[in-house]
Amino acid sequence: MQRTDIRDKFHLYRRKVILAILPFLFFNSLVYGQERNFIFNKSGSDDQNVSYGFFLAGHNSTLRIKYSEDFLDPDNTNLTNVRAIMPVFSPGFALGFLVTGRLHDQVNVLFTPKVGFYEHRTDVQLFADDPNEVGGIGINTVPLMTEETLIEFPVLFKYKSERFNNTRMFFIGGVNGQVRTKKQEEADEDPVVLLGRDLALEMGMGFDLYFKYFKFSPEIRFSHGLMNLYREGHSDPRIDGAITDIRRKSITIYLNFQ
Fold this sequence. Notes:
Elements: H1 6-12, H2 14-37, E1 50-67, H3 69-72, E2 82-88, E3 90-104, E4 107-111, E5 114-129, E6 137-160, E7 167-180, H4 184-187, E8 197-210, E9 215-225, E10 243-257
Antiparallel strand pairs: 1-3, 1-10, 2-5, 3-4, 3-5, 4-6, 5-6, 6-7, 7-8, 8-9, 9-10
């Protein structure tokens, strides 16, 4: 009987052993290569007590209105021609600066002064005779446009998750003081007249993304005005007396660079 040496057995299965080991060697070299090539970016360092940056923003804004008791009274003949008053979301943009104070590794306070350009559209639906139908009633929609430029002073608190590689998630919230650049005498010529000062509550969320030379933080934020801006007795005669309360509302996408 022929004796089989252990070296012969290894010679028979050498190819299989090598083929089985190769994937593990490849995986190990790949992981090692990724760890060696990974860069932990320190741009926009969170260790600084005070840091600075800038941002660009695009928003969709509208007005929230509250009807008056006279408009809701079916016996009031002064406003019977008005079917509805409907604010519409309109686009705009803003730009400003970031001043970030470090309270904790995961908590910051932000002061973000900015200039915002807003356009408010309000559609007024009026009952009118329909020329296409004998004895019928039609509806005409009249758009009323109000434009304004606001100087804004948001003061916000930012709570961040622990940093994972070059990414952090955060939540943000605070208040925003707003002052219109246009004088009230000029604003009284608008079809929907608003007062020039407001205070808004803001809240949102986003991500800190760390790159080699800067930190980029995309963010979405919601703003709700807290003050009644309606200036009674100066708006378009067709809606004057139909409204008692107007407040701003907006949704904004921020692109922060730091």
